[in-house]
Amino acid sequence: MALPAETAHSVVVSALRIVQATPVRRWLERGYRVADSGSLSQEVLGHTFANPVGLAAGFDKDGLVVPGMAALGFGWLEVGAVTPRPQRGNPRPRLFRYRKAESLENAMGFNNRGGDALSRQLARRHPAAAPLFVNLGKNRTTANERAVDDYLFLIERLSDRCDGFVLNVSSPNTPGLRDLQQDRTLGELVKRATAATAVPLLVKLSPDLAIDRARTIAARCVEAGAAGLILANTTTDYSLLPESRRMGGLSGRVLRERSVELLRGLAGDLFGRCLLVSVGGISSGRDAYARIRAGAHLVQLYTALVFQGPGLVKRIGRELAQLLSNDGFASIGEAAGADVAGRAGKGETT
Ligand SMILES: Cc1cc2nc3c(=O)[nH]c(=O)nc-3n(C[C@H](O)[C@H](O)[C@H](O)COP(=O)(O)O)c2cc1C
After folding, report:
1. Which residue, 28, 136, 289, 330, could crosslink 323 as a Cys pair with Cβ 3.0–4.6 Å?
2. Does 262 reside within a domain?
3. C-alpha of residue 23 to centroid of ligand 1, in Å
């Protein structure tokens, strides 16, 4: 019988923590290195991304396995969500696998060791082998009216410890958090957050926003200084997985179509104006390539790693390089936005 999902995750993280401190890490690095014909590498937000495939937020909440996950081939990493004060998150069980649907349901609720612990951890890890982003959340007990204080606290603590921030206003597991996506509130939040740091800030949105609302909100974020958008967090549209427990956010294959739709819905306005990152149900080079053509310069994944194991990033890298070459593209930058109507004449984002 398989271990409960959260236990399995803890076992993997504990094993990686041990392994990454030994010479076995070099062996992993060699074994999982993404074949580099040069086409996958790009400069984004002032950093070199050896390949566009990132580890999505939530896998490494406390930044414990940065070298270990970089050794699995990820071109960039997002740790967190972190909140100012440590918190336990929701009661267990709170993470469920749906093997047939290659999907997960999680109601974790920002379980993490807090901003000071993450700051200490990243002091040893940054700069990392790959660009490192931190996903910022607010404590459950912080009222939305005070949310800005939580984000500013974290930005102050962590600006020297990472290459970028992700303002998370879209997790479904902290009551009221998604209400911060009201465009005025969010615009003000983004303005204050970007003014407080020299590090680029991305905003992560919910896939449950209607496209028109998402367009308004995204435009407001960019006007307020956000360097880009991450599309998207988990969904609470349980009709996508009838057997769901209806207690958290769904990720993985059931989210795929919705995530692509949101990217397409925003790319027409925003491609060339800010960085677009696509996440949700990516499990192959073909998926990643479609997102890039639809306007994303970077992608991320979490759930597919759980079902397909550690060789996934290498496989995606190989497939992606092949797909680019088949279509005559020498780089991600050339392919990015190829399917966006009116792309011609729009400048490079990066
Ligand atoms: C167990 C779990 C925990 C997550 N925690 C966070 C989080 O703390 N912050 C966040 O922005 N997204 C979090 N996510 C969402 C992922 O970063 C990602 O947006 C989502 O899972 C869709 O990608 P995927 O289909 O490749 O998993 C979490 C996802 C899972 C499965």
Report:
1. 289
2. yes
3. 30
